[in-house]
Amino acid sequence: MRNFTDFDTIVKNMGDLPPSPIVAQKILDLLRDPDLRIKDLANAVSLDPAISARLLRMANSAFYDQQKQINSVDRAIIVIGEDVLKNLAMECSLRGAHKTYGLLERRLWEGSIGSAVACRMIAGRITDIDPSEAYLCGLQHHIGKVVMVNRDKDLYKEVMRIADSGLGSLRDVERGLFAYSHELVGAALLDYWDYPKVIVKATLHHHEFESLREKDPEAFTLCAVLAMASDFCRFYGIGCAGSDDETDLSMNRGTLALEANMMVVDEMLDKFYSEFVKERTLFLS
Fold first, then answer.
1. Which domains does the chain have, with CATH numbers?
2. Which of 179, 187, 192, 282 is most exposed, with the fewest beta carbons within 10 Å of its own?
3. How far is Cα 278 from Cα 38, in angstroms, rounded to an integer?
4. CA–CA separation, 162 vs 170, rounded Å?
5. What's the pLDDT score for residue 236?
6. CA dist 70 to 41, 61, 67, 84, 281, Å?
7. How many helices (H) and strands (E) are present in the chain, helices listed first?
């Protein structure tokens, strides 16, 4: 049973929705199994040609410097490791949600990868949230924008143009042109896909999350991590119109909510861009 009764209405009004990332979800389920067998994982990966092909390319890339050509999915999994495979599966499902792929889609994709990497770093250093859960939340919390682009790419380009020029906030412009803002659409889609409820809730509330502090501390913490990750990306211009190195992380709502030590935040920010580039390079290999 759905927690948010308006989700069905949103789903019905947004036209054709991306298919559920079934293979990616299967891979995630297997990776949670303490009795996991590589053979079972390889069989699941092989169900998706895009994931298996990218996996083999990554395993044979210069980054892993293998002496012999990797020709099997199970061997490729051993080479790249479970964490990279998990990220690869979710990244492929995110790309697969796009009906087309151009500059706008690339900007959204890089923003999602950047947010995911930052969320993983932040969650691992200053919270008790599972870094993998934070990565997944960062990767998918703007999936609503993808749905809007798929519904009317030219109209969403106009949304971005208006927001980038400072003539209105992104969410207000979205509501004006699409009736819903991206966090509502994204939460509705993730709920439709049966994602973990905490990720659905964090996606829904990531712009305004103070109300969750007492009601749902885990979702509140995830939202705070997302808020910090957003400014990490903004600082370097990842998924944005341009970089903003004047971004003050000490005043970020997430930083304040988590009472984060600014020495730790600055240290993570210094390391973030190289981590993002490494991750992006892996996924483009």
1. 18-96 (no CATH), 99-285 (1.10.3210.10)
2. 179
3. 25
4. 8
5. 96
6. 17, 10, 9, 16, 19
7. 17, 0
DSSP string for residues in 123-161: HHHH-SS-HHHHHHHHHHTTHHHHHHHHH-HHHHHHHHH
Which DSSP symbol is given to 61? Answer: S
Cβ neighbours for 113, distance < 8 A, ≥ 6 positions apart: 91, 139, 238, 276, 279, 280, 283
Q: Nearest 5°: CA angle at 102, between 100 and 103? A: 145
Q: Tell me how far apart the alpha carbons of residues 72 and 195 are, in angstroms, rounded to a whole number.
A: 30
- For residue 234, give the 3-state DSSP assignment: helix
How many C-beta atoms lie closer than 10 Å to residue 186's C-beta?
25
Residue 53, C-beta contacts closer than 8 angstroms, at least 6 positions apart: none
Q: Cα dihedral sign for 37, 43, 44, 50?
A: positive
DSSP 8-class letter at 17: P
Question: What is the mean pLDDT of each successive set of 10 residues along the chain, which is 285 residues long?
Answer: 61 71 76 84 75 79 78 85 81 69 86 93 95 87 90 93 93 94 92 86 95 95 98 95 87 96 97 92 68
CA distances from 214 to 2, 220, 253 (A): 21, 8, 16
Q: Tokens at residue 213, please?
A: 């502090």
Q: Exposed, middle or buried, 4 (CB in 10 Å: 0-12/13-18/19+)?
A: middle
pLDDT for 208 equals: 93
